[in-house]
Amino acid sequence: MANIAPSLSPLDITRAPEGGAVGSIQSGWRLGIREFAQNKLAVVGIGILLFYILFCFAGPLVYHGNTASTDIINSNLPPETGHPLGTTDLGFDELGLLMRGGQAALEVGFAAAFIGIFIGMLWGAVAGLAGGIVDSAMMRVVDVFLSIPFLFIVLIVAVRYGASVLGLSLIIGAFTWLVPARLVRGEVLTLRTRDFVAAARTAGSGRGRLIGRHLLPNAFGVILVNVTFNVADAILAVAALGFLGFGLHYPTQDWGDMLAGGTTYMQDGYWWLIYPVGASIVLVVMACNLIGDALRDSLDVRLRRR
Amino acid sequence: MTAYLIRRILTSLVVVIGVSIFVFLLLHLIYPSPAQDILGPKATQASVNSWNRQHGFDRPWILQYLSYMNRLIHGNLGYSYKANQSVAALFQERVARSAYLSGISLVLAVVIAVPLGVYQAVRRNSVGDTVVTSLAFVTYAMPVFFLALILIQVFALSFPIFNFEASQSLSIWHVMADWHSMTLPIATLTLISVAGFSRYMRSTSIDTLAQDYIKAARAKGLPERLVLSRHLLRNASLPMVTLIGLSIPFLLSGNLITESVFNYPGLGLLFLQSLNNVDYNALLAYTLAGAMLTVVGNFVADIALTVADPRIRLA
């Protein structure tokens, strides 16, 4: 635009286009999605995540490994036919456990992320819209929560209430809404001075309608990016709790739990108890981070290359 | 500056009080009284009640909170009924070990990440940059304990250079001298922090490189070495100060997991033991200490930033 403008006189600019190809104006969303699809790493991330979702939830329908009954005769077998990833010290099939553990990790990861985002979204929007002393008070609450080391507080609550997928999701969600709250509030602070919000106010929109119909949809990019990062954080948190022995209770196993079991036999060289599980955690978390990075690049207008 | 300092101290105090109320209330709701644990599972309701009355656990929580805070301000962290000694004494044995592990890891992480990030920004999209970025990305997604296990596998089992267990010595001086046992725990905690720091340092360096004063410095003929050390490094490091302050909770969490993997008898391991045997006062004291450290860290980082960067006008 800048390099052709000098050659045109002001009259030329107002000239109507002479037929032919008229470029359609694309919506921000279309542009965003197209840019996202062009990001190869993001596509890889989506691929890894889809693979693990299929592997964990559809896998057990196809592959029936023994994950329920102790089988001492077949304990600690290296990978072989019948047990592609070997067996644990109790004779459980490692591949079967990997699928089951992945179910728990993904379920808690997504549930906790959505709970956290939901709370953070509302908290941030209400604080940003209210402004003044209400806003300051609500943000000090966020500061308080952010000051408490996440793992400590989650461990304390999880000892008592973290035995189930739902419980663990609620606990992790309850302590991961802080960053989204801050970001949504920041968005709302800039949005609320815009003309369309003033117009909606003039038209008689109440606070709830303003938040639900006008502010949150426009902050959706920020929210979506944070869902993916929160999923990654939640999966890491579940794994850490499981590894430390304060995660889900038997018979639900999770990946951290399995890794902790494998460390006992590290010196015996039972690698199959450690590396498949560890790599799974890293891959899923990495996939979420890749998707999040790509979403941020494509949805954040300020960073957009075009 | 003075007005800013006072306001900043006041907000920090509000946050500290908020943290103490929240943590106290949460623990109070989960474990209303340690009576049953102390008197044993067969204790009658009457003896539990009388124990509660004796030790003040029958009062409303707000009164219990106030008397706890009163004792805390006077340096009394409470009594660990499980270890049968004061929490302060328990902490005193261990605090130096945790401070050493976390402190040296944090320093090493900064010393490694800052030049690494600058290197990546200057050689943007080169092979070296791509390799470091990829490694940092993988490490960033890695649970602390898995990284620790990989390091143990490679450097303690496959190639037995280091010990797979941290030093068990009671003397902090022995611990510091024991490189054979301390290298792997320190390396674990350092690498985890480097992954986050170097990513951040790379992006702030790239932003700084695009600034006009870098162009001006180059245009006046300053050698590239000086452009990087005087203009780029100084300016790009400023946001790192804030990041280091913000990273304290993650450092403490990482410290806890590292201590658990390497069986290093510091505060993190004490926290896990306290969780296992519901040692109420130790949990409360360490969580509060972690939160205080975070608040103080953020405060110091903010002040350091305003001192280091005169452009920041205190609104």
Amino-to-carboxy terminus distance of chain A = 12 Å
Count of helix runs of chain B: 14
Structural class of chain B: mainly alpha
Largest interface: A-B, 38 and 46 residues
Tally of alpha and pi helices of chain A: 14
Topology:
The complex is a heterodimer of chains A (306) and B (315).
Chain A: H1 10-13, H2 28-38, H3 40-57, H4 59-62, H5 94-130, H6 132-147, H7 150-161, H8 165-174, H9 178-191, H10 195-202, H11 207-218, H12 220-244, H13 255-263, H14 275-299
Helix pairs in contact in A: 2-14, 3-5, 3-14, 5-6, 5-8, 5-9, 5-11, 5-12, 6-9, 7-8, 12-13, 12-14, 13-14
Chain B: H1 2-30, H2 35-39, H3 45-55, H4 61-73, E1 79-80, E2 85-86, H5 87-122, H6 127-140, H7 144-158, H8 172-177, H9 179-209, H10 212-219, H11 224-246, H12 248-262, H13 267-276, H14 280-308
If you had to describe this structure to a student in words, what would you say it looks like?
The complex is a heterodimer of chains A (306) and B (315). Chain A has 14 helices and no strands. Chain A is an all-alpha fold. The longest helix of chain A is centred in the middle third of the chain and has 37 residues. Chain A is elongated, with a radius of gyration of 25 Å. Chain B is mainly alpha-helical. Chain B contains 14 helices and two strands. Chain B has a two-stranded antiparallel sheet with strand order 1-2. The longest helix of chain B has 36 residues. Chain B is globular, with a radius of gyration of 24 Å. The model of chain B has no long low-confidence stretch (mean pLDDT 86). Chains A and B meet through helix 6, helix 7, helix 12, helix 13 and helix 14 of A and helix 1, helix 6, helix 7, helix 12 and helix 13 of B.
